[in-house]
Request: fold
Amino acid sequence: MQPLDSPPSTALAESPFAGITERIHKTYTENDAKLQESVVEECMQYFLSITDNDIHSAHIFCTSTESATVVSFLIVVLAGFDVNFNNDQFTSIRTCIDNCTDCLLHYHQQRAIIRQNFITLKKVPYRSIQLTMEKPALWEANHLYDKISQSIENKLDNESLKLLLSKILAECLLNPKMLRIHKKLKTYFDHCTSFLNLAHNVLASKNLKIYPGLIYLLFSDNDQQRSWALSKMPYNLNNGDDKVNDTNTDNQDLINYYTTQDLDPLFVEEYEIHFFNIQTPTFFNDERSIQFWTNLTPLLRFSNQDAIRTALCEPYTCSSYRDDVKVRIVPLYSVFVNHIFSYLKTPLPFLLRFLAVSLEKFKQDIFDLIKPHNYMSFFDMAFNNPMYKKLLVELPPDQFPTDLLELDSNRSPYFVDLVKWMEVCSQILNDSNSCQFSIAMFGFMADYIKDGNCGNFIGTYVMENMNNQLTLKNNIYNDKINFELSFKHSARTLIDKKCILLFDAISTRSLEKRAVKLISTSLIFDIDTYAFYSYRLNNNELLNTPDLSIGLWNMLTVKITSNANLLMSVFKAFKDIIKVYLIDVSYKKTKLINDRIVTEDNIKKIILNCNKHNKTILQFTQSVENVLIKLSEYLTNDRMKLILNEKDASLGFWSLILSPIDKIYDSSVALMLESFDVDDRLEAFKECLSLNLIVTLDSFKTSLRHFTSLQLFIPTQRIVKVLMDFTNALFDPMNGIMVSSSTEMTLILKTSIVEFWIDVWGFLGMIFRNIFTWSITYEKLKSTLPKDIADKITSDLLNFTRDVLDLSHLVLNGLKVILSLLNSENYKSEEIKAIKETLVKPIIVTLSDLFKWLRLSDSALLVSCVELITKILDMSTESGIQFKDDLLTILVKLCLRAKKFNNKMNKEQTGELLVRARQMNDRLVEDVSSQVEDEKVAALMKKSGSPEPLKSDYQYTSRKTQPSLSSYLKPYIRENVPSFDAPKRMSKLELAQLKLAEKRKTVEPAPPRPSGFNNKKKPITINSDNESGDDHDHNDSDHEGHGNALFTKEQVVAKMKKTKAALQSLQAPRFHNDLNKAQNDKRNELMKKKQAEEYMRLRLNVDMSPLYKTILSWSYNNDKELPSDYAESKYFPIKDKFDSVDEYRKSFEPLLLLECWQSIQRAKQVGDETPFRMTIGSRSATDSFFDIYASVKKDVISSARCFGDNDLLVIMLVDGLPDEESGMGIPRRLLRNSQFNCFAKVKEIKNANNKYSDITLRVSSENNNLVHKISPRMELVGLKVNTMTTLEREFSSLAGLRYYDLSNEILKAEPDEVEVADEKKIDKLKVLYDVNDSQARAISGTVQGTGFSLIQGPPGTGKTKTILGVIGYFLTQDDGTVHRVLAPGVRSDGSTSINPTSTADDRVKKKILICAPSNAAVDELVLRIRKGIKNSKGQSFKPTVVRLGKSDAINEQVKDLTLEEQVEAQLTKLNNNNDASNSIREEHRKCIVERDELRKQLDSGTLPETEISKVELKLQQVLTKRRELGKRLDEMREQKAVNYRNREIEKRNLQYKILNNAQVVCSTLSGSAHDVLAGMSLTFETVVIDEAAQCIELSAIIPLRYGCKKCIMVGDPNQLPPTVLSQKASSYNYEQSLFVRMQKNFKESVYLLDVQYRMHPQISKFPSKEFYNSRLKDGPDMAVLNKRPWHDIEAYSPYRFFNIKGQQIRNDKTQSLSNKIECRIILEIVEDLYRRFSNVDWSNRIGIISPYKEQVRLLKRTFIDRYGSLITKQVDFNTVDGFQGQEKDIILFSCVRAETHTGVGFLADIRRMNVALTRARASLWVVGSVDALVKNKTWRDLFNDAKDRNLVTEAYIGFTRSLEGGQTPSKPKITEIETITLEGENTKDDGSVIRDAKKSIDNRSQRVVKDSKKRPLPSSDRVDTSQMKKLSKPKNVVPVKKSTGQISRDMKLLKRPTGPSSSGFIMPPQGSNLPPGMIKISGNKNSLPRKPNIPTAPNNFKPRK
Reply:
């Protein structure tokens, strides 16, 4: 009620009655009779004064508070004196109350207050005041009764009656005492109940919320009145949401509806009656107890706490009542406690109802009201009451009141009354108390879960409550979690005890959900518990891991397959199992000791706790494993699909897969394999991804993110391999889910992929960041472990590092797949760019840590790391993402090897990174470079200019007995190469240092270290001028503490002060006059070095995109002479000189492409390539290209060799392809009809499995009508067009020319001038190298010269001999010591450690590169070199030679020197376990079959009980075996990949080692650009090119890319030029060699070898005159040496022109010419020789050549028809071009051209003519038509020369019969022919071995004999070939030039041992004895040497080589 609180009226304040209210209040506290009398009198006077005032008399009580107080006080006092209020004097009071509701209300409010004051202040006895208050009440009651009576008598109308009754009833409700003392009025009241609403409205209009009448009616026995009273409570203010279970309503106004102002003294006046009654023994009974507590409940519900405490708990009249009535009155909640602990039966549910409301109202404050009891006392008063248990099983649990009003108004118990209080109590308690409360509740209630009546309700209720308790509120990283786990552990223990009830409850439908949920929550609790302890123990906290509650887990293992919901919830519960892990105790202990942040005692405690933790976790692991094993036995594929399709369950599954605990991982993978029925993890991952890509991605990335946060090394090793498989399954361009399925790039999928990408790079970044900490700690740990374990750690670290880099590359490649999908989905370019930026940014975040990996010391790892960083930098540049300056600065400093940024990168690698850094911020790179250079110059100057002692070149490294980490190969430590100048006088310091070094020699070196990580041990360096450890002098060497650490460390100086002082005392001070000049010199030196490195990088790293952008855009269907995009105006003739590189490139590049185009056209014309099928996987866009990923059968590459690496293909969409299984192949007519095709370059070939290989093809995005039709799984046809290797290398040389050291000389075509040598020096060289004058001058001049040197070697002048002399002289010219220049950091023995005592003689300095255009020419040089060459002292030595190139294209005799063969010979054989894998896989499949059979038996239901258990046991055994086999398959697959990778790494390291040890590297011109050679950044300052006139210019400059400053070109421009396919290109001088261009410009700058040792003087005379201006001289006695028996016949003289009359014929298909007459005459000549000289072994003596291929074919066919196929072993048939470089005793040259036609065609080429005329040693016979030939000047000169020398013979058919002289003709016979080998097996022309050559030849011999019988020869003119002797195998083979190396159609080798490879080498005479290697035809004593090309020389002839 609201009291009247208006201020005192002005009238009263100014009247004589001012202050009367204060005096009234004073009477309460002072016992002063006079005061009381005066106050009463004063009040009476005041009352009389206002009654005289009409205005005031109408509103006595509502005018002011003072007025109401005074008059009300007067009434109460007068009532105490028993005054009669019926006196007219009080009529005004009654009138005022009757007429004014406000006066009525204020009167009773003031009356109640006065009553309160009399009791509390005046201490008037309770009963006295009650009697006093009855008198005015009786006065009121009589008055009201009279009014009602009068109204009845007056028969008022309804409205008047309602008005009257509303006022009367309102007055009764304000003072219910009237109803108690006036029975008649009570009767009227009871009859007027229907008008109570009117009265309520009257009072409510005065803001009265509650009044005494409501309490009176609430406690009424009349149910109607009680219901009405309840209806006036604020139930309806809850807006209909007043549900019984809604205990936490947000309507605070409703909860605190009644305040202390509402529960005023007027309210208390009524309430206290009922409060005192319930405590009166005579009044109390169960029914009244129920009435009291039910009526009090709504009052409690809607009152605030203050109102309850002041008005309800203990009314102000309690003490007065207690003292006056003598009854024990206690506060309300004491009454409640008394009642409930009296174990009342019937009132119990109502007491509990009241308790529930009280708990809601007071929450934890309730316990202050019920002290000393607490929340646990409630269980005692409830659970110990038998009535409670009875009601639990009797009350219907499903009967609920509809709302709170119904609940409060009902005096019958509800089931909810029994449990509501527990719910509320558990909610209001703090966490720990609530948990204990819930434990008690569950412990009591759980047993009722099975009850038929309340079981469902109780089960639902208590399980939900327990579930809430076990649900953790804090995560494992919150500090509060420890306390929460501790008090909730008891609850989890209770669940373990009651778990059987939970699993039983699952069978009840209504309880299933909550039972499953509680089980799941319990599992989650366990997982979170152990995750918390894993995390905290790993962070060194002293905690004790609790034991596992294993009962639930054991029961779960049995019951998990019984319910699908349980199965799903269990997987959901596993979502955080990834956070549970074992502690690596050894690692932990080592790290704690090393970090020194924990005391020793605490370390012991931590380790003890970790051991206990691990023991508990192993028990936990076993429980999880048992569950998973059980699932693998019964979980079907369909069930697994349901699990993986549900987000939370899928997350749990992937948490198992990525679990750090191996056993959990193994079991979960086995489950996955079993469920999907696949063999390995990769296939299972594909199944998962194909099932639900988005859910799987989200789950995997979340689990991976959780794992990343753990930062554990041991499990990370496995996760890397798992992630490899997952990435392959997702992004593999051929079979990945992203490309193989019809994946639509929706927004959700795009988001999932991006988030997955971010988390994967987060994982990799974690590894990049932590690898250093892991490696350092394990390095410390290794010292405490046995060697085998330490080695295992080392191996694991190394393989792990390699795995991480492989994974990084694999993931990075996935970006292409993502972007290709985006492109295929037609995303806008802006969207794709934004997505790409989003994907690249997380990669860039890892770079700051990845840059540290550039300190890797293992070369293979470093290569992979640089490649990875390069890719990332390229991606960031493409995406437009800018690097932060500090990040880019780190990279640049690493590349420049700034101080404290040492690394092992070579020049190529640093160059790759620097060029990308410049693309990002060129200005920053320049600034950093300048800064680093300044630092280096300062360091150098400090060493050279300071008086401090110089730093020693010698350095030693302290060693520990315990090896450091892995001996990773480090081939890049550059040694200090000593100068070969005169030694300077050593300083005292240097002498001291040298003595110290010598002393160290005596110390036995420590054994080599195994692989491992750096233990931070630094080298001890004798360096007294730099305390800071400046290492700029050794940036390339990086001599660090342990040269075999995985990561390098900064080189620091560690020396003792005494040592420093002693050394300083020995050093004399040094002074420099011009320090600035020296500093500038140092700076210039550094600049030159920097520029050289930069140019080397630019030469070796040429962008090939422009080349392929052009070629791949060409149309395959174009058959024109020029490509479709080229016009005539683009082509320019090759000039003699060029002004710039741009001009040079402008001329050469179009011609290079034109030659490529012609090779494509030639391939189309020849059409001898085999088409093959390919299956498309996916495609991705890259700049102007698309990369297409496809697969082909492995046989297509390995067996059929349809294509290979770097080939150019055409791929076609072909309609009507026949079925592959039909075996029909691919008809070429289908290829011709293909409309959709394009060129493709083979970018990569990978072996995917046993049957297929994956290939990556690059195609153009322009002018491509095929690429947009490509879709996954499409079948295309491929056809090889060309091999692009040589073209690429020529283009790269052209593009990089501006960075060549000799670029200016190339542009100007300017060779070095011919040296004017000292004659003494020449004479010395002639003796040392056994050479002639011209050879000696060539050797001296070229080796001493610079730039280009040209050596022209006409036929037979000993070019090879000269080259060998150049090599020997170059390598040993200083002191005879063999020198080698190594890659940075490698010693001469191939090791990488530094020997501090090595001397100048131990050091090496030179390396030479030898090249030629063809393999045959290179092989000839290698053969000669391997036999030994001479050094500068004339001593023979064998330099270390490496032959680059593919083994199958190299001569068998030098194959062992190839890099490939040398590597294979040394390579460790790594077993890939293929056979074992196959057997295990087969056994695995058998297990599956057996499993299926056993399951079938169990499902049949026909097995007897005794057999079921046996079958189940057998099934378990089979499944266990299958799990183990599956695990082994995965392990073997991983090991196979590791073995392959390690093999490749070892192969690469061996390649480096072999090349580093090589003194001479030989290769073809194209092969010199070998990837390995380029990757090592080797420098070849000197390059020798043989046959330099036979290669195009672009090929000649390929080997100059390695820093060449001197190039020696050897060749003969007068012989055949390079072969160029394009006539168009030839017309622009493209076939001109660089040698020729230089010779044109500087004719005198050529060293001419002017002595020939091949030809008879009669033969050499014309070539010398015609082609060499008669400068070519004959060697000594060449006429004698080349004298042959047939020379006695005039027609068979050494030189002869046979003039014939013939006719030429043109082949319509080949357009080549032939001449049958010439064929017959040549056959006749050969037959005549056979007849006349039958004793001569003619094998390999005769060569028949012609310019025309058709004539060669005709000649060959003619001879075979006559003699059989064996004749090709006796006679060599070839074109002039094919015979270049060969020689024979007899050459028959068929000119073909006849007189009937004009022109001489090919014959007009004097170079071809020169070759033809210089192939013979003893006899050259030209067969041709003079009339046709003389039309050409050169041929006319030749004929005239022959005619003048009387050397012309008229030839015709049968002319040989008229010849005279020679031996008596006889019939030679062909005997058996034996194959010939030269120190090896026979080889085909491709280098492959003929395994059974002899057998094949024997068979062919038989066929020849048969053929001979079929075609008998006439005795007159046929040769008896039966006399031909069998060739024996030579014993001593001399390295010689071979024939073409061709193989005949019957696979017989044409090669024969011949004479020396150079005509400058002549065999000495052998006397009458046959020298080794010679044979004779018959038994005739006058036989010729068996070596037909070794002529007999006079006995006194001195041999020359």
User: Anything to note?
Assistant: The longest strand covers residues 1236-1247.
